[in-house]
Amino acid sequence: MSHAKNKVDWCLNKAKKELQTGKQHRGLVKVDTDLEKAREHLAKAERNLKITLYLQRGGYSDWCSSSLFYMIYHCFLAILAKFGYETRNQECTFAIIASLIEDKKITISQRGFGKSEYSGHNRNARITGDGS
């Protein structure tokens, strides 16, 4: 079993134990697909991209990596909402994304991520997957 799959199992078990004790989970839970939640995460991702561009134009490039991280993170949360997962743990988020890639349920293309190709919004970077 891959490292990602082991981590996903750990995250699912962690959340299950926490929920059984009446706590809010800090792991990964399988839930119904929630396209509205996915749209909300995409709106947050777009906002973080706008913040990044604003910071860059203002000469605060040292803050751009943080806002770009959260842009990508909210894109991942949108994917997980589409696939029916809820996560409250960054390690678990990255593990389930890696697992979905391993299972070929999503493909993340890195084409267009190069600095010379960047022109505001990168329309070449794509994530595909049908959510089933």
Protein model, in words:
With 132 residues, the chain is mainly alpha-helical. It has one domain (3-106). 56% of the residues lie in helices and 8% in strands. The protein has helices at residues 3-20, 35-57, 64-83, 90-102; strands spanning 28-30, 85-87, 107-108, 127-128. α2 packs antiparallel against α3 (64-83) and α3 packs across α4. The chain is globular and about 50 Å long. The relative contact order is 0.16.
Taking the alpha carbons of the first and last residues, their distance comes to: 22 Å
For the secondary structure, the number of strands is 4
The helix/strand order is HEHHEHEE
The number of helical runs is 4
Provide the helix percentage.
55-70%
Q: What structural class do the secondary elements suggest?
A: mainly alpha
Main beta sheet: strand number and arrangement?
2 strands, antiparallel
Across the major sheet, the strand order is: 1-2
Question: Topology, pairings included?
Answer:
Elements: H1 3-20, E1 28-30, H2 35-57, H3 64-83, E2 85-87, H4 90-102, E3 107-108, E4 127-128
Antiparallel strand pairs: 1-2, 3-4
Helix pairs in contact: 1-4, 2-3, 3-4
